[in-house]
Design a protein that fits this description.
Layout (H helix, E strand, L loop, with lengths): L1 H9 L6 H10 L9 E8 L29 E6 L15 H13 L3 E2 L3 E5 L2 E13 L8 H7 E10 H12 L3 E7 L7 E5 L12 E8 L2 E9 L1 H6 L2 H55 L3 E6 L4 E4 L1 H6 L11 H5 L7 H12 L6 E8 L5 E13 L5 E10 L1 H15 L9 H18 L3 E9 L1 H8 L1 H18 L5 E6 L2 E6 L6 H14 L3 E3 L2 E3 L2 E9 L6 H17 L5 E3 L2 H20 L5 E10 L4 E13 L3 E3 L1 H11 L2 H23 L4 E5 L2 H5 L6 H10 L6 E6 H4 L4 H12 L3 E7 L6 H6 L4 E4 L1 H4 L6 H16 L3 E4 L5 H9 L4 E2 L10 H4 L5
Parallel strand pairs: 21-22, 24-26, 26-27, 27-28, 28-29, 29-30, 30-31
Antiparallel strand pairs: 1-2, 1-6, 3-5, 4-5, 5-6, 7-8, 7-10, 9-10, 11-12, 11-15, 13-14, 14-15, 16-18, 16-21, 17-18, 19-20, 23-24, 23-31, 24-25
Helix pairs in contact: 13-14, 14-15, 17-18, 19-21
């Protein structure tokens, strides 16, 4: 009985309670289980599933109140309406636990001494028959291996009085029996005695024998009862009194043993049939779920495969033999070593389970992804695995889904190039390889020039086609071992690895620029773009990914600033400039609220009368440590960071407060010019409403303000820019075109947007005294403007001669150092012409 329960635990890595109860419930089919209280399993709770490395034996408790963990009975099947043993702790008492320890050490059946325990309402004497349960990973049979791998014990508890009484009172009721456990030399323990022994009498016939039963030594005293003595003839009694009595008793015990063995064999046959049916149900359940089943006889090296297993690969039942090699030959070459390694690790006990994903060759030549799971279910006495069973699950669709998710997470869907995530991973790997091989790598970062114009004029579909073709052209210029990735928008980045010739960098970079500058045929349309490229080297320029990316980004922007369609290598000066830019950016964020910014005003003189009729508002920054910071240094940064929106509004408000005051002093015709950045015009969230509302609050008319714009803004075809320029005109606000002659503005734009003033750039004014061509150009601009109804303001007048020449040419207004530099408002009020 216990051997069967022990095998249940041996055949599985984890036996659940319902499995235990179902199995032991079938044992109740035995006709005779007199005195059996329960069949139970006590488990050792471990901190981990691995054997303890110190090889220490189980500690023996010293008292019932010991603080070391208990070993509880976790599963119990009650018999004969008895109480279950589920609440027991096998450590208590010590004498009982000693038998459990002995069973573990000997790997054999052991018997406990008699133990007094409570069953329902009474106390009874019991004994346990014990078998140890080891981990099915145990290989050797040494004492250390057994102590490492013990997991628990299965045992049967018996009511001694019921068990013995059933045997002796029915079969030898005329004999009195007393059994004493003499295993412990320090004390003897009564096991059983017939009820009649409580009454005093002197038996005529008696015999003493010692029996060794599963690790215990019993002293058996057999005596005749008066009824037995009276029924026998004196002569026969003498014979029986000798050896016959002992032999009869022993024969009886043997007969009982064989009777139980016969019953056990019958029960085992029933259980074998049930197990066979259970195995069939198990296979049906697995194959019903779509899994294929395999059963490997390791000794014969033969595998039984279910029909479903073969059908997964498109095979008929007869098309694959039982040889293990037939399976190995179908494993994908890239998976073979991993599959066999996992199997070997499991067989050697390095892993607790065999689970592996691999590809198998189908009959039609395709590959199918399989999830293989298995476990050893039978071991040889020396620890060798004998039989292994498992399943195959078709996970091809799952792998396809995983591959799709992985591709979407790591590759750009438009160009199918690695995306930012994959690029970072590749770069990290290439840096490790560079260190290992002691070969440099190069990072090339390029941005397409004029790509926005393609999107705006031809549409985003055509823009996408251009990006796809650009990706193909770049890929054709590099080696298969290099990486081309798209970071987003029109930005591409390239890793050139294992560079034994640095000259190849320049050759590849120019080849890419050349290919990208060729025409792109986009459906019926033709488009042209170019590329600006930055290059940095590892490890000479930087040793970390972050610094490499900073370097290559700075180099790319340097190429753009230098005229585009060119290459720029990173230099340390770029890093210094970038660091300086970062410091200015951080300080500029604090400057406005820290009252470090101030509006200066430069007078604009009416040349004919010499009166100050206008002023241009110019921003100045008084840095607490660096002193006065040039507008040429911080205005571009303000535009790039978006700070120009807040700063521009502040300059406007300061100027309007000032013009209100000066109109009261100098007349209502006085105007202030405020520069408005193209960024302010292009920002869709910014409207002119705030400016107009603020002027109304101050009681100012539109003509109090002149908005100065650059020529480049007129080329912007967006509706947002046009709408804002026309809105200023409708509000009566005048518009001045700054730096005229340095850009590409068309005369048509001057009429379209109703420009009021043209400001001649100081580069033309500077040399009019010495260069007749510059004077002629200024005279032409003035004449053209007047014919279009525009007034002219000359910038950068620094001498009396320049002023006289411009006045003679008919220029309307002038400003420059000859009159006054830009000054604070309080000083401006002291100026008089």
């Amino acid at each position: 009985m216990l051997r069967g329960v022990q095998s249940l635990f041996k055949a599985s890595t984890a036996v659940e309670e319902d499995e235990f109860l179902a199995y032991t419930d079938s044992l109740k089919n035995l006709d005779n289980h007199q005195g059996l209280l329960c069949v139970a399993y006590a488990s050792i709770a471990r901190m981990s599933s691995q054997p303890k490395p110190d090889g220490k034996a189980l500690p023996e408790p010293t008292s019932a109140t010991q603080t070391t963990p208990s070993i509880p009975v976790i599963y119990s099947q009650p018999f004969s309406a008895s109480d279950a043993c589920i609440r027991q702790d096998i450590r208590i008492p010590t004498s009982r636990f000693a038998a459990f320890k002995k069973a573990m050490q000997d790997a054999d059946t052991h018997l406990t001494p008699p133990i007094l325990r409570q069953n329902r309402a009474s106390n009874i004497a019991t004994l346990d028959i014990i078998l140890p349960v080891y981990s099915n990973r145990m290989r050797g049979q040494s004492m250390a291996e057994r102590e490492h791998n013990i997991q628990g014990w299965v045992f049967s508890s018996f009511d001694i009085a019921t068990l013995m009484g059933e045997i002796f009172e029915q079969e030898v009721s005329q004999l009195a029996i007393r059994i004493i456990d003499i295993s412990d030399t320090l004390a003897t323990l009564p096991v059983y005695q017939s009820p009649e022994l409580d009454k005093p009498w002197v038996p005529r016939y008696e015999s003493f024998r010692q029996l060794e039963i599963h690790g215990r030594v019993w002293n058996v005293h057999i005596a005749s009862k008066p009824t037995f003595e009276a029924a026998l003839d004196r002569h026969r009694s003498s014979l029986i009194a000798g050896a016959g009595l002992a032999v009869s008793i022993l024969l009886y015990l043997l007969s009982r043993l064989f009777a139980y063995r016969s019953q056990a064999l019958a029960t085992m046959r029933v259980m074998h049939k049930e197990l066979t049916l259970s195995e069939q149900r198990w296979k049906f359940a697995l194959e019903g779920s779509g899994d294929g089943v395999w059963d490997w006889d390791i000794e014969k090296n033969e595998v039984i495969r279910s029909s479903r297993w073969k059908n997964m690969l498109g095979l008929e039942d007869w098309e694959m033999g039982p040889e293990l090699e037939a399976w190995k030959e179908r494993i994908h070459p890239e998976d073979v070593s991993r599959v066999l390694s996992d199997l070997e690790k499991y067989m050697n006990g390095e892993t607790s389970q065999y689970v592996n994903e691999h590809r198998l060759l189908c009959k039609d030549g395709s590959w199918k992804w399989i999830l293989a799971r298995g476990m050893v279910v039978d071991w040889a006495p020396d620890g060798r695995p004998l039989r292994m069973v498992g399943t195959h699950t078709d996970i091809s669709k799952l792998k396809e889904s995983e591959n799709l998710v992985w591709k979407q997470a790591n590759f750009d869907q438009l160009t199918e190039l690695p995306n930012r995530r994959m690029f970072y991973d590749r770069l990290a790997q290439e840096i490790k390889k560079s260190n290992r091989l002691d070969l440099p790598l190069a990072l090339l970062f390029l941005d397409l020039d004029h790509f926005k114009e393609v999107n705006d004029t031809l549409g985003h579909d055509r823009g996408d086609q251009l990006l796809q073709e650009a990706a193909r052209r770049i890929n054709h210029c590099v080696r298969d071992t290099d990486t081309v990735a798209r970071l987003g928008g029109d930005e591409f980045i390239i890793i050139l690895s294992e560079l034994d010739d640095l000259n190849s960098i320049d050759r590849i970079a120019h080849a890419i620029l050349c290919k990208l500058s060729e025409s792109f045929k986009l459906g019926e349309d033709i488009a042209f773009v170019s590329a600006s490229m930055g290059i940095t080297l590892y490890p000479s320029d930087a040793s970390s990914i972050d610094n490499l990316l900073k370097n290559v980004d700075q180099a790319m922007y340097s190429a753009k600033a230098s005229g585009r369609n060119r290459i720029s290598y990173f230099t340390p000066s770029m890093q210094q400039a970038a660091h300086q830019k970062m410091l200015i950016t951080n300080d500029l964020r604090l400057a406005l609220h820290g009252k470090q910014l101030q509006v200066y005003y430069q007078p604009i003189i009416h040349l004919a009368s010499g009166a100050i009729e206008k002023a241009e508002a110019l921003l100045r920054w008084h840095h607490p440590q660096r002193g006065m910071v040039s507008p040429a240094e911080f205005i571009p940064i303000a535009e790039e960071t978006g700070l120009i929106m807040e700063i521009g509004d502040w300059v406007f408000e300061q100027s309007m407060v000032q013009v209100k005051k000066w109109q009261q002093q100098r007349g209502s015709h006085f105007q202030i010019s405020v520069n408005k950045s193209p960024i302010q015009f292009k920002n869709e969230s910014s409207t002119h409403d705030h400016w107009l509302d603020y002027m109304k609050q101050l009681g100012l008319v539109g003509q109090s303000l002149v908005v100065e714009i650059t020529e480049g803004l007129l080329l912007d075809t967006s509706q947002n820019v046009s709408k804002k320029l026309l809105a200023f005109r409708d509000a009566g606000i005048q518009v001045a075109l700054d730096d005229f002659g340095t850009g590409y503005s068309s005369l048509a734009y001057l009429r379209r947007f109703d420009i009021d003033y043209i400001k001649i750039d100081q580069s033309f004014v500077r040399n009019i005294s010495t260069q007749p061509d510059d004077l002629a150009l200024c005279e032409s601009i003035i004449a053209m403007a007047h014919k279009l109804g525009l007034s002219v303001i000359a910038e950068g007048i620094e001498t009396e001669e320049q002023c006289a020449l411009l006045k003679a040419a008919g220029c309307d207004y002038g400003q420059g150092y000859w009159f006054s530099p830009a000054v604070p408002a309080d000083k401006f009020e002291t100026l008089a012409f």
